[in-house]
Structure formats: C-alpha cells, structure tokens
Amino acid sequence: MSRYRLSIKLKLLLAILPILAALGFLTTIFVSSYIQHSFQHDLEKQQLTLVSLMAQKLDDQFAAYQKTIVSFSKSIPRHALNNPQQLEQYIDSRQGVLEFFDNNVVVFSPQGVLLAETAKRPSRTGTDFSFRDYIIQTRKNWLPVTSKPFRSQLNHRPPVVMFTAPVLDKDGTPLAIVGGSINLLRPNLLGRLATTRIGSNGYFYLSDLDRTMIMHPDQNRLMKPVAAPGVNRLYDRALAGFEGAGETSNSEGVAMLTAFKRLSTVNWIMAVQVPVKEAYAAVNTARRLAWISTGCALLVLAILTIAAASHLLAPLQLLTTRVSQVDQDSEYQPIKIASNDEISELATAFNSLMYQLQARERDLRSSRELFQFIADFSHDWIFWRIPSGAMLYISPAAEEITGYSVDELMSEPTLTYTMIHPEDRGLWDQHLCQTEKSPDNQTIEYRIITKSGQVRWLRHICVSIFDDNGALLGVRGSNRDITERKLALLTLKENEERFRLIAKTAHDAIIMTDLHHRISFWNPAAELLFGADSAAVIGLPLVTFLPGLVDAVHQSETNSERGLMLEISGRHQDGHLLMVELAYSQARLSGAPVTVVVARDITARKQTEEQLRYISLHDSLTGLYNRAAFEHHLSRFDKEGPFPLAVIMADLDGLKQVNDTQGHEAGDRLLQAAAELLSLSFRTNDIVARIGGDEFALLLPGIPEEMAKNKFNRLQRQIELFTELPENPQVALSCGMIQVTGPGQLLEAVKQADQLMYQQKKARKENLSLL
Fold first, then answer.
1. Is the pLDDT of residue 697 over 90?
2. C-alpha distances in Å from residue 699, one per residue of 509, 684, 688, 716
3. Which of 30, 37, 111, 619 is the most buried (most CB within 10 A)?
4. 221: left (phi over 0), alpha (psi -120 to 50) or beta
5. How many CB atoms lie under 10 A from the CB of residue 242?
6. Could you tell me the CA-to-CA distances from 416 to 260, 394, 409, 443, 632 in Å, in that order?
7. Which helix (H) or strand (E) holds 578?
8. pTM over 0.70
9. Residue 304 in this model has a pLDDT that exceeds 60
10. How far apart are CA 247 and CA 258, in angstroms?
C-alpha cells in the first residue's frame, strides 16, 4: 500500500493542474469560437457587400443595354423596314450600337421573321425566329424584353443574352422588333466578372431562376444546371428569395462561404463564393497557436506548482516525521514548528489534542468506575454478553426482576433463554439473528417467567459491538420491567375494543369530530343513516351532513359540555333531507378537545306528529280549521292583532233538511261545497274554520273595513254563481260580519257577528214563508 501512496505535492499538482487545464482549454475554446464567429460574421458581411456591388453594376449595365436598344428602335428609318439591304446598311452605320452588343444586332418583322442582321453575311433574311422566347415575350405586351440565356445559331454557337424592343408607329402599331445580343464568353462585363478571383479560389457566378448557369469561370458549366435541388441548400433558399451569406456545399461537395444577391433588372441571381478552408485559414492558424500557447502555459504552471508546494510543505513534512516518532507510553513532549502559518497552528492543535487525550484517559477511568456504580444500583437489568453466550456482567437488578441471583445467571447463561415465555421465544430468536448482523440499537418487548412463576413484561434494548475488522465482540444491553405499563396498555386496548364493538353494533349513529368539527369517527349506523362510507367522510366537516348543527348549538342555552338534546335537519349523501334527533356533547380525548354526536332518524316520527297535529287542528270532512284551531287563533289575534280585523260568522242553511231527505252523504257534499266557496273567496292567511255541524267562522287579520265588505260581498256573489249551475249543490249561507279595531274586542265581536248571522237567517226564513 505504501508503495503507491501519493504525496501531498503530487495530490496538489493533480488537484490544481486539471482545474487550470480545464480553465485554459475552456478559455481557448471560447476565444477561438468567438474569434471564428466574429470573423465569419465580418466575412459574410463583406461577401454580401461585394456581391451587392457587382449585382448593382450588372443592373446598371443591363439597364444601359435596355436603354440603348430602346433608343436604337426609335431611330430606325421607317422606310428602310421594307428594304433589307438598306436596313443592314443603316445598322452597320451605328458603330456605337454594334460595339455595345458584341454578338449580333438584328431586326425582325412584327411576326418574328428576320429582316436584317450584322453577325452573318450573307444574312439569314427571311428566317422565321418566332419560336424564340424573346420574340414571344416581346409580342405579348410589345415592351422591351431581356431574354433568358440561350445558344446562338451562329457557327460557334456561343451562349448569348438577347435584349429586344418593339418599333412602333405614331399610333402604337408594331412595325418591327429590334434586338441586340451579348456573348457571355467575350470579355464584356460578364466575361470580366467570370475571370475575377476572390482570394486564391473564390469566384463569381450568375444563374437564372431555372438553375441555368449564366456566368462561371469554367465555361463548360455555362448553360448547364447549377446544382440539383437539395445539393446546395443555400442556393435553394436563394431561389426562394433569400439574399445573404452563409456556409453551404457546392455541387462538388466542397464547403463554401457563399453570398447571394438577386438582380433587380432581370430575375437572375448573382453569387460570390470562397472555399471555407481558404476563408478561415487565418482563424485556424490562430487557433493552433492558441492551443500551443495553452499547453506551454500549463507546463510552466506545473513546474511552478511543484516548486511552490515543495517550499510550502517542508514544515508539514517535518511535522509528519515528529508525529510518527511520538511514543504513546512515555510522557508526551510537545512538537515545535516555527513556520508561523497554518502548519504551525496544526502543530499547536496536535499538542493540545495530545494533552486532551491524556486528560480523557484519566476521565475514562473515572467514568468506568462511575458506570460500575450506576449499573450496580440501577433498577434496570444491565448485562454484557460475549459471542459464546457467556455473561461478562449482570447488574444486581436482575435478581429483583427475575428472582434468580446474579451468581445463578452468571453460572447458567441458558437461564436467560429458558425463562422466556414459550410464546415469545420465536420473537427472541429472530431478535438474536438481527443483533448479530447489525450494529444498530435493537429493541423488543417480551415476557419472562420468574423463578416464583410470575409472568413479567420486559423491554429489552441492546447494541452489538464490533471490532475494526467487523468481528463481533459482544452485546451490551438492558432489560426494564414494564409489567405495570403493559397491563395498563392491555386494559386500555380492551376498553377501546369494547367501545368499538358498542359503536359498531349500536343502532344509533355515533360520530366524533375534532376541534374544527372535522369527522374523525363514523360508525356503521352513521353510514346507514347518511348513506356515506366511513372511509369517504373522515376529515370532512360535520356540517356536510348536519348543516344546522353549529347554529343550533350556539342558540342553545345549555352548556354543551354537559350535553345537548337537539332536533335538526340532516342531509343524506344523495341530497334528500331527514329529521335527526341527536345528543351533542364535548369532551377531551388524549388532551385534545373532541365532539361526540349520537344521532337517530326521527323523520317518520316527525311526519306522524305533523299528521296528528294537522288532524287535531283541522276538520276531517272539509279540511278547514276546526274549533280548537279557531279558538287558538282567536285568542292570539285578540292579543297581538294585526288590526283592523274582521270577524265573519256563517251558518249553512238547510243542512238538516238535506240530511233528512237526501242522506248524510249529500249533506257532506253540501258542507264540502260551502267550505270550498269560503276558502276560495278569502286570502290564504285568513282563518277559515268549521266550528260546528253547519257553523263556520272566519278571521280576516290586518284588513280595512272597506276591503272586508268587498270580500263579504264577493262571497255572496260566489254563492249565487255556484248555485246557478244545476249540477252543484244548492249552497245557502247566512252570514254576519263585525270589524274590530283593537285588542280585547274579539270575543264580543264574535257574539255580535253571530247575532247578525242569525238575523240574516231569520230574514231568509220569513222571505221563504212569504213566497
């Protein structure tokens, strides 16, 4: 191991040098990338400027060609158009035009038939050139046209471009078409551009939108496709309208820095390109020099680092030698280092540490004695067991817990196992397996049978001690008697199980909530009552199912801690309402406030009570209030109003005669018809009651006298209209009405209204007698 040990100097070098190397490499990469990016940006900008200038020159030249041919078309003598020989003589006389158009100058008829030319003698007069695209385009709108490049029919078939213009008379009628062509191979502007070099291998080229090469240093490329689609992607973008510079690959697969510019006079594309390798030659040279410089700098830094480390670490080497010579058995002699730096502080700290170790050894001896004292007087059974199972130490408390003396336990180690309750020995065996493998604290609770036969609960905690090689040295631990606490827990668990059994089998819903009225317990009866599963409602607010509970508790005058009995509305899971009777009380559970609610469904009982109440207050035949209800409202209105108030007493005439002659069923129908007429004639808040066999009484609260009379008269009209129909019973009501303006007058008013009713009944009988 020592043969391959790394010194601090080497570690320092290995730590610092990679960082410096990484920083140097990253800096070199960043600077090189930045320089290349900046150089590329400037070079692309220069390329674009250059191609833009050349494109502008070509646009100016083509504009001059077009202007010259238009001017020439206007100068042709109109009489010479019918004489080819005279026309050729005129063309030959225009030396400026012939020098401008270095390939040929021609005149065609409006139909495209050649009239005269200068490039060939004898001329091809009479030859039809109407198939040429430039003739077709000129005749389309009779405007000047610049043709696409094409092969001339002259002997050497040069690639040419034709500029045409129509010859028109005064009224715009076409008389002829003149044209001038330039040879793309001759040293005109295009020819000079084709031979111009950018650097060593850079050049210009010109193409139309059909990918046809118009100008190129290699004449064999003329009139041929520049590149197939997808080969030169930047050229494909230029055809789509792109103007700018960038890197691309030409048709031969060579990486090029290319700039494109479209001519404004014709739909041609001007390009200048330089091989990428040539364009970035200076940048690549600079990058190589940068890498060489970085490597040299790192080498120098490594040498300087080693020298500095040797100088700075000399005191540390001295300290290391002195520390290795320290004799642990002899009196410690302090180490002195005079470097006045961190190494000196380290020597001082080491001296202090050695003094502290000596002091701790003394303290350890004292602590060992103290531990022995505490263990001997502790109530816990403390032990130290070696891997063979023998006991090195057992505290005196073991005898108090087990009934066996320390000597018995020490001489018979198996006693600690045989006293374990048979039902817990499997747990103990599993615990021993874990203890021998793990250095962590292990805790279990198990039962023993003491020497006297008693069963005791012990809480056992131990930790395994291992040496530096991982070998087990022994187990240290303690056993505490927890019999009383365990029995208390068992009793508590039994009570809890008893409560859960009661709650589970109870017919009433038992609900428990926390301080914020969130549900924490929900028994099966509650599930049945509200239709919600226990797992789904835990944590929900109790008001979800008992929305009016909080308000009812606040309104109650009884202390909730002593318990409340409430009847409120509950909400079922499916949304329907039910009436619930509940006992509400507050208590504390494990120190926290809780609420206990015991509830039962009283919906059916409430419905029955409501039916009984209705029956007790209503007449079973007519559905009107009965005498008891009338007397209740009479007493209430006499005290509270509202006033003014009208009292009407009514008696059904002829009921006895109908019963006697037609039967009681006919009499019942007559009573029901009278009740219906009374109910329909008055307001819903008016009290309409049947107080006897054929007697009715009405209380109209809060009604002015005039309105009460109108209601009374409306009743009379309703009776007349009702009896006019032959199928209806013949209802006749004698009525009396009295108006009351204040409290305490109602009983007297009833008597007066009754008298008025009898007076009307008497008057009706007298009228019937007279009839």
1. yes
2. 46, 11, 7, 17
3. 619
4. alpha
5. 15
6. 98, 11, 7, 16, 88
7. strand 577-589
8. no
9. yes
10. 6
